[in-house]
């Protein structure tokens, strides 16, 4: 009986196991069919959108189309925005490429030839006002002689364009700085030229003109003392004022109205000279003082109100040439390369007192107007007189005996030759209409001589 009962239990267990196995098999088969169905759905959705994204969370079938359409819309909006952004970026890149081409065109590929100087002979030279008319010509010569040149300028009347042919040269450095504030650089020599020079410019801000010539000069003399540099101060024939002595020797003390419209410049320069000799006496600074007479040449400001630039611009445009006053006042004009040679000779000399540097050939302003008119081909201008200028000096001509004796210097460029070069320069300036024909001027003779 017991044996029979055991056999029955065994059979029941086997039946249960077999039934369980069949159930498991059927269940697995059903799952596999469902998986294949879902995979087919996914495949369809991927085909439509071309995306590789797969939803592993198996959302209910009825939600799939809704999500898909949202996704589609989002993709379209993002696509449109991206397209627009791309187009904008393309336009901006094109703009920048054009700008870059212009800027690259302005950087000289080839610098004027520069002499190589060994470290024993190469000096580090600071030129204040080096982006101005005279300063930029001086910089050209110093660079071509192989020195390291630092230009300091606040661009009040100077222009980067005057020195941009040196940008990037390893011997050249440009500092945008107002010399009324202290400056800390190292230098062996300083040419201190920073100051507006033409009456409309220095009268525009008389207080600033005095500050530049007094505080600015103190700063430069202080720098010279600190670094042990030799310093040349660019003074002016204006220290003689409306002179009572003719021609003017350096020993003449001058005749200046201390409260007139030109006083900010005239007295500013007189104080600059006093400061130079005070630093020389008290602080043992090695100073040179150049009393510069009227100078002209390329890179003068076309609208600086000075005789040469005024007359040439008027003659080139067939406008009336205006002579202020009766035209009997005299001036003597020195070509800029002669002045630069004089400044270099003075710096290298051992002469410590002020030296006149200018051209002693004297003309009345009236004569001068006619000379310029005749030298501009086809000029149809007439010469007319205007109201006299207050405190305008009546006679101006340098006595250059000291420069001849101690510097072995005298001007070489004739008025006719200098005027021709200047007229050519202004002609070029007038014809300049775009950024592209903005070539910088470089004196061909300076290139040849140095
Ligand atoms: N050109 C002449 O006929 C003449 C005559 C006599 C004296 N000078 C003297 O020669 C020097 C140069 O004259 P220029 O004709 O070349 O004049 P400019 O105006 O062309 O040059 C003067 C330069 O000094 C810069 N400058 C002015 N104030 C400055 C400041 N506070 N800090 C830094 N830079 C400053 C200007 O931006 C400019 O680049 C001046 O000191 C001037 O008094 C010139």
Automatic annotation (TrEMBL):
SUPFAM superfamilies to which the protein is assigned, alphabetical: NAD(P)-binding Rossmann-fold domains (SSF51735)
Record keywords: Coiled coil, Decarboxylase, Glycoprotein, Golgi apparatus, Lyase, Membrane, NAD, Signal-anchor, Transmembrane, Transmembrane helix
Superkingdom of the source species: Eukaryota
Gene3D superfamilies: NAD(P)-binding Rossmann-like Domain
Catalytic activity: UDP-alpha-D-glucuronate + H(+) = UDP-alpha-D-xylose + CO2
Domain NAD(P)-binding, first and last residues per copy: 126-422
Cofactor(s) recorded in Swiss-Prot or TrEMBL: NAD(+)
Stretches that traverse the bilayer: 12-28
Cellular location(s): Golgi apparatus, Golgi stack membrane
Pfam families associated with the record: GDP_Man_Dehyd
Membership in a protein family: Belongs to the NAD(P)-dependent epimerase/dehydratase family. UDP-glucuronic acid decarboxylase subfamily.
The name this protein goes by in its record: UDP-glucuronic acid decarboxylase 1
Organism for this UniProt entry: Pieris macdunnoughi
